Amino acid sequence: MKDIVEEIKKRVDIVDFISGYVSLKKRGSNYFGLCPFHHEKTPSFSVNPKGGFYHCFGCGESGDVITFLMKIENLDFKEAIRELAKRYNIPIHIKERSKNDALFEIHSIAEKYFFEKLKLNKTALDYLKNRQINDDAIELFKIGFAPESSELEKILKKEGFKEKELINSGIFIQGSRGVFNRFSNRIIFPIKNEHGQTIAFGGRILNDDKTKAKYLNSPETPIFSKQKVLFGLNLAKDEIRKTKEVIVTEGYMDCLRLQISGIKNSTATLGTALSRFHINILKRMADKIYMNYDADDAGFRAILRSAPTILSSEMKPFVVILDKGEDPDSFIRNNSKEAYIKKLSSAKDYFSYIIDFIKNKYDIEHPSEKMRAIEELKPIILSVQEPILKAAYTSKASRVFNVSEDAFLAKTASFEFLSSITKQEALLSIILRDIELMAWIEDLDDFKDEFEGLQKELYLNAVRFYLSGEEFSIEAFEKNLSDSQKKLFYKLISLPQTDINERYQRRKVLLYLLAQFKLDKLKKQLRIIQQKIQENPKSEFFEEYNKTFSEIKEVLSAWQDS
């Protein structure tokens, strides 16, 4: 193993390799760029070509090309060695299985199983046929079907996998009578990493059962994070590199439709806002990014949620505007590929799109309405970290609204009202006063676990209302609440917030609360890892500790810069 490590370090140019992930510029004998492991405005990430190592002066992360790949791709040591050896044609022989190998193997077997089962299910095949998805598309994306059966569980156990490994894969759920397939009776879309390995699944329900989610993704696992994976990227990456352009949609069907229509530089997020991890991946391949979400209020909200990341990315962002109620899948089916390309060529500058949308929401000839519009736009501008970009956006906004640039740059918020209530009460109080601020919560579905009982019920009602796109009013919101929910609702909106009257102030407090929720989780993880180290001081536990501690520093840094 030592010989292989030395060979990799000798063969791999660390500057060339890291340049695939980070934009580096030479300064003296070293190269510098923005650290991919924490949020920063000024480049403090240094790569030393002579020594073959990197070091970040901001967060302290350092190592060689192997540790860089481990951290950036969330791989363990043996997986990183295998990946580097594969990329640079270095022969290796590693017999010992890594801790994630079982998860990759389970997903590989499950994908083949689902793929074969689709051929036997006429209802699923008819559904795909009606959506104009042909056999070539099914083969390309390895679309499958998950029957209501324990057959897959038995196959995997026969292959030697333990029940705990099946649950850890995210495909199975622990029930009172053993495990069962979470994707039963769903059409299956395999989710692959950039290298084409299946790491998760998405499932589309076949019937119209309103009690179940139409689309369902695998939960987070050691090999899958929604914040780090883009659907279809494994198929799109060559075309993205070739065109230097990428189209980002919000669902498997949209991405699939574009790719099978010949527009191959398309990918999709998986129910989350476009994260900085997504942007870091796409920046390696493209200069231009086209956001193409559904042409409705919910689509705009999704675009808005990605604004801080996109506007700070240094990419050239655009929004593809389709006819009302259309998405890429329906538009191409109802029109043509050529009609879509025409829409693409007339895409609107991203920031101009946001300004126009907000302008059209308010009568900006009226001073109070103009103030509300500015309040809505202000947190978006304030979220941009790069000074030159922020100055450009501020200048443009001040011209459009005919106000001074200072109107968009005031940045104060008091935290006084938090002193006597819980984080959960504070957060609900803010979003129920200003439901548009839910755009700043990265994953609306996952965040529900921060609440319990009535608070959770109220939060889920707020999510449903926000995603509906209906204009918020107390009367409209309370009509679907139970008596006990109404009582809590009125208590929360009655909490005094005199120190955070404006939207940008409320946003500041909201981001503070979201950071606190993240920190609580990470600190809990840290305590568990510390306990593991005390009981059994293995090197992997120290790696976990360092990773978690780095994440804590990253959350603190991002909050301070917000």
TrEMBL record:
One Pfam family hit: Toprim_2
Keyword Zinc-finger (UniProt): yes
GO biological process, one term: DNA replication, synthesis of primer
Enzyme Commission number, as recorded: 2.7.7.101
Gene Ontology cellular-component annotations: cytoplasm; DNA-directed RNA polymerase complex; primosome complex
SMART domains reported in the protein's UniProt record: TOPRIM (SM00493), ZnF_CHCC (SM00400)
Molecular function as annotated in GO: DNA binding; DNA-directed RNA polymerase activity; zinc ion binding
Residues in Toprim domain copies: 244-330
Cofactor binding comment, as recorded: Binds 1 zinc ion per monomer.
Domain of life of the source: Bacteria
Entry keyword set: DNA replication, DNA-binding, DNA-directed RNA polymerase, Magnesium, Metal-binding, Nucleotidyltransferase, Primosome, Transcription, Transferase, Zinc, Zinc-finger
Enzymatic reactions: ssDNA + n NTP = ssDNA/pppN(pN)n-1 hybrid + (n-1) diphosphate
Residue spans, zinc finger CHC2-type: 35-59
Listed cofactors: Zn(2+)
SUPFAM superfamilies linked: DNA primase core, Zinc beta-ribbon
Function: RNA polymerase that catalyzes the synthesis of short RNA molecules used as primers for DNA polymerase during DNA replication.
Domain notes: Contains an N-terminal zinc-binding domain, a central core domain that contains the primase activity, and a C-terminal DnaB-binding domain.
Assembly with partners or alone: Monomer. Interacts with DnaB.
Homology family: Belongs to the DnaG primase family.
Annotated protein name in UniProt: DNA primase
Organism this protein belongs to: Hippea maritima (strain ATCC 700847 / DSM 10411 / MH2)
Gene label: dnaG
